[in-house]
Amino acid sequence: MSARKLVILILMAGVCGAAYYWFAQGTGEALPADPDLSPPLIYPSSSPTRSPEPSTDQNTNVTSQQRTQNTAAVTEKLPAADLHIGAKAGWWDALDPATDAILLALHARDLNQREIYLQQGLQQDPFNPVLNMALLEHCIAQIGSTLCDTQALETLLTLDSENGLTADFAAIQAYQNGDYQSSLAALEKAAKSSVTDTYEWRLMDMVAEVLTREERPLDNQFMIDVMREAESRSSVRMGALFQMCQDQRTDSVWQSACARRGYALSENANALGQQDFGLGLAMSIADDPESLYRSLLQERNARLAHTSEIVQRFDAEVLENSDWRMSAAQWRSFLDIFAREGQVAAYQFMLHNTAN
């Protein structure tokens, strides 16, 4: 059985649902409109502790003025548009283009509309990590856009240089530019990273701000809406990383680097979906994925049982419990723990510190 066929079989069985989603994108297979991104069956250890506020360099040469100059052409060439066209029902109706451009950019399907939102976001908050990540993902597919230069990557490197996420983007960007040596070096750096933060906790915080403006209670539906938006947004980075590794799988050096990046993700990503993708990436590049799967399953059996218990309890006691409530302070602690220790630790905090 080929590696690709085995990976598809495993992913369809629910072991690595997130990885299958991006494998489909990389091979041109039709993607579901609402993919099932529920937690899979195999989870690695929780991510290492980390400060929720990345370090910043006040001397950075990336400024809002530079960004505005580079992106001014966007509004000149694009027609005026209704920024609420296609907005989802419910709380999405409360989004304000003047303050919520980043959220709108993350979900805009029309490319012209997305670029308007991205430009507005750059003018409002050019150092926002979620915004720069969104711009980098946009530029993977829209290389020729006037918004796409080196500044988004430089900004993210300045804000969060030790984050494996930035090295992933550096590898993809260099690969697209035909600089395979630099791409491999960046991939090696990502494989050695001690943490990968894709800022889901930041995105959850942004969505929560909108819900708070609507005076929504901090109940189970609040948590469902926040988590759904954070977990369902697309991640072009995963698709590009997966495809890059598949393209180079016959090269032993690339194969090793891709496998080690997958293992690193499965061990140090603070979001469960990223951990699962890392496992799928490592398996997809292996010469004997069946043997690898068996060994990983045996090795991680105890962690599997522990994490499965936490996820099931969180679903039952929080998400499916209409009587569940949390305080504003508990919500802030949840986000802080998610950033520093990972999603499972954040779940445990909620289970231990909130009540019906």
TrEMBL record:
The keyword Signal applies. Keywords: Signal. Residues 1-24 form the signal peptide. Residues 57-71 have a biased composition (Polar residues). Residues 35-71 are annotated as: Disordered. Residues 43-56 have a biased composition (Low complexity). This is Lipoprotein. It comes from Teredinibacter turnerae (strain ATCC 39867 / T7901).
